[in-house]
Amino acid sequence: MDIFAQQVINGLVLGSVYALVALGYTMVYGILGLINFAHGEVVMIGAMVALAAVSMLMTAAPEMSPLLMIAVAAIVSIITCMVLAFSIERLAYRPLRNAPRLAPLITAIGISILLQNIAMIIWGRKYKTVPELFEFDTHIIFGANITDLQVIIIGVSTILMTLLLLVVNFTKLGRAMRATSESQKVAGLMGININKIISATFMIGAGLGAIAGILVAGNYSVAHYSMGFMLGLKAFTAAVLGGIGNLGGAVLGGLLLGLIESIGAGYIGQLTGGFLGSHYQDVFAFVVLIVVLVFRPTGIMGERVAERA
Amino acid sequence: MLLKRVITMALFGLMLVGCGQSEQSEDGARIVRIGHVGPLTGPISHLGKDNERGALLAIEEANQANVVIAGERIRFELISEDDEANPQKGTVVAQKLVDSEVVGVVGHLNSGTTIPASKIYYDSGIPQISPSATAIMYTHQDYETAYRVMANDEQQGKVLGDYAVDTLGAKGIAVIDDRSAYGKGLADEFQAAAEAAGATILTREFTDITKTDFTAILTKIKGLNPDVIFYGGMDSQAGPMMKQISNLGIKAIYLSGDGTQTKQFLVLAGDEGNGVYASSPGLPLDQMAGGPGFREKFKQTYHEDIQIYAPYAYDATNVMIDAMVRADSVDPEVYLPSLKSTDYQGVTGRIRFDERGDLQGGSISLYRASDGEWEYIETVGGGS
User: How many Cα atoms within 13 Å fall on the side-chain side of residue B256?
Assistant: First the structure.
C-alpha cells in the first residue's frame, strides 16, 4: 500500500509542474485562440538562464548564501522569460492577429524550433548538471519518501496558482483579462487596451513557466536544450484535459495528468497482464486524454474561449 | 535569351568538371575520404564528439606520415556526420556518406543506428568498423562489410550476469532497459545469464532515451525489494536515475554496462553515483599497451580527457588505413579481403577479426565508482 502512496506523491509533484506550465497555455488560448507551442521552450529558457546565473554567482561570489543565489537567479530568469514572451508576442503573433488561425499556429511551432536551436548554440548539446545548493532531507509520510525539494515544488505551485486565481477573479487587471477573453472587440470598445492585456497575459504565463523550469531543473538535477518540448506537449495536454481556456481546469488537468502518468506507469504491467510495459507511460497518458475528449469534448471543467459572435 | 543559355551551359560544364572521381589537393596528393558517424547532438553528444576526435587524431597522424598507396601520396579526410542517435537519421546519413564516395566508415556509435546503417554500407560494399556498437545483431547479419573492434554484448551480458549473482550475491534482480537495440540487447543477455546462474528476475521495466523522470518505475521496483537493479542504457539516463533511486530510499546495488561506464555518468550522478558497478569492453585505458600515450596525445590536442570510446575510434580508423596500405589500394572492393585478415597492434590491444566481424579475444572489464572516479576491479576474457 505504501507503493501506492509513493506513486501518488510522485504524481502530485509531476502534476504541480504540469499545472504551472498548463496555466500559460490555457491563458493564451483563452484570449487569442492560439496554442502557444513556444511556451515549453520558454520554460526551458527559464531553467537554463537560472542555471547560468547560479553558475556565475557561484564563481563570482562564492560566499553568498545559497538562498540569496537562488532568489537572484529566479528573478533574473523570470525577467528574461517575461521579456522573451513579450518579444515573441509583439514580433511574431501580433502581426498575425487577423490572419487565418493556421498562420500563428505554424509561427508558434517555428518559434519553438528557433528557441531550441538558440539554446543549443548558446549552452551546447550536453545535459547540464544542476549544482546542489541545498541539502534536502527526505521525509516519510504514509510510507512514501518525499524530499524537501518535492514539498517545495508542491507548495510553490499551489501558492502561485492560488495567487493567479485571486488576480484573475478579484483585480482590475483580472477583470480586463476575463473581458478580453470573452470578446476582444467589445472589451476594446469598453476602453480596455487590448494589446496591453494580451502582453500582460503572455508575461504572466512566462513568469510562471520560468519558475516551473527552475523547479524541474532542481528536481531532476539536469537541464538541457530539449527539456521543454515534451514538457510543453504534456502540459498542453493537461490544459485540454481540464478544459482549455479554464484556469481551474488547467490546474485540475495538470494534477490529474501527473497522477495518471505515475500510477499508470506503476500498474500498467499488472493491468494488462504484462502485455504492455512501463515504456507505454506516455501512451497511457495520451490515451486517457482521448477517452476524456470522446465523452466530454470540452474537457473536464468545460472550455472557456472567446465567443466568435 | 542567348546569354541565358550560354550561362546555363557554362555552369553545367563547370559542374561536370567538379564531378571528378579522384580529387587532387594543392600539393598533388590524392584525397581519400573516410566517413565517421555518431550522435553529435543530443543527450550523448559528448560520446559522439569523443569518437569523432579519436578518428580525427588517427587521420591527422596518417596525413603527417605521408602514406603512399599504389604509387600515389594519400591525403585522408574525415567526413563527420551526425545521426542524433536516431536510427532513422542514421540511415539517411549513411546514404549521404555512400553518395559522397567514402572508402570506409568508422561508426556508428549506437547499436540502434549502426545496425540499420550497416545494410546500406553492405549494399554498396563500403567497409564499416564500429568503435562502440556492442549489440550482437550487428555482426550476425552475414554482412562481410561489418566489423567491430571490441567485445560484444553476448559476452558483456554474461560477465555482468555472472558477476551479479556470484560476486554481488544477488538473489532478486530488477532489470530496466531503454528499449534501444543496445539497451534491450544487453538487458536480455544479462537476464539470461543471471537466471542461468540462479537469480530471480523480479521485474522487467522500460524507459526510453529521452526521459529524465523514472520515479514511476523506480517506485514499483522499490516495492519489490531487489538486491540489484540492472540498467541497460546510456549515462545520460543512468545519472538522473541514480539520483532518483537515492531520493526514493531504494537500497539496491546499481549495475550497468559500458553505456554508463563514462565520466559523464559520474558528473550527472554526483555523490549518489558512488557504489555503482559497470562494465566496459577491453582493458582499462591505462592498462592497455598504448593507453597512457594515447591519453596524453588526446589531452594535448583537445584539452579534455577521453570519455570512453575514443581509443577504439582511433584504432578502427588506423585498422582501415592499414588494410588499404596492405592491399595497396583505396578501392573498397580490393582492400576488403585485407581488412578481413587484419592483424594489427592497436592502442587498445591486438586486433584480429573472426568470420563474423567480431573482435577475436575480446575482454570485458568491471569497474566500481568510488570517490567520484571509476575504480578498476577485474577483467574477464581476453588473452590474445
Answer: 28
Please tell me if residue A199 touches chain B, with a CB cutoff of 8 Å: no
H/E stretch holding B147 reads strand B146-148
Residue predicted with more confidence, B321 or A299: B321
> Mean pLDDT throughout B109-124?
93
Measured between beta carbons, the chain A residues lying within 8 angstroms of B217 are 265-266, 278
CA A219 to chain centre: 15
Q: Do A279 and B179 touch (CB under 8 A)?
A: yes
Asked if residue A97 is part of any domain, the answer here is yes
User: How close A266 comes to chain B (CA, Å)?
Assistant: 6
Q: What is the pTM of this model?
A: 0.81
Instruction: Go through B240-267 and write b for each residue having 16 or more CB atoms within 10 A of its CB, e for each that does not.
Output: bbbbbbbbbebebbbbbbbbbbbbbbbb
Interface test with A, best of B219, B231, B236, B262 (most A CBs within 10 A): B219
Angle between helical axes of B215-224 and A247-271 (0-180°, round to 10): 40
Q: Which of A7, A127, A281 lies nearest to residue B43, judging by beta carbons?
A: A127
Number of domains in chain A: 1
How many C-beta atoms lie closer than 10 Å to residue B104's C-beta?
A: 29
Residue A266 falls inside a structural domain: no
In a domain, A265, yes or no: no
- DSSP string spanning B96-112? HHHHTT-SEEE--SSHH
Q: Give domain status of residue A286, yes or no.
A: no
Amino acid B299 reads K
Best A120, A126, A136 member to test B by mutation, with max B CBs in 10 Å, is A126
pLDDT in tens, B227-282: 999 999 999 899 999 999 988 889 999 999 999 999 889 988 888 899 999 999 88
Dump the DSSP string for A161-218: HHHHHHHHHHSHHHHHHHHHHH-HHHHHHTT--HHHHHHHHHHHHHHHHHHHHHHHHH
Q: Does B275 touch chain A (CB under 8 A)?
A: no
Cβ B212–A222 below 8 Å, yes or no? yes
Average pLDDT over residues A215-235: 89
Residue A175: is its pLDDT beyond 60? yes
B130 Cβ under 8 Å from any chain A Cβ: no
Domain of A223, in residue numbers: 15-129+136-237
Q: Please tell me which of the candidates A222, A263, A267 has its beta carbon nearest to residue B268.
A: A222
Residue of A nearest to B266 (CA): A129
Q: How far apart are CA A78 and CA A43, in angstroms?
A: 10
Tell me how far apart the 2 most distant CA atoms of chain A are, in Å: 61
Reported as a single tens digit per residue, the pLDDT across A82-96 is: 999 999 999 999 999
User: Pick from A129, A145, A281: which is nearest to B247 by CB?
Assistant: A145
Instruction: Please name each of the domains of chain B with its CATH number.
Output: 22-151+287-353 (3.40.50.2300), 154-280+365-381 (3.40.50.2300)
Asked if the C-beta of A227 comes within 8 angstroms of chain B's C-beta atoms, the answer is yes
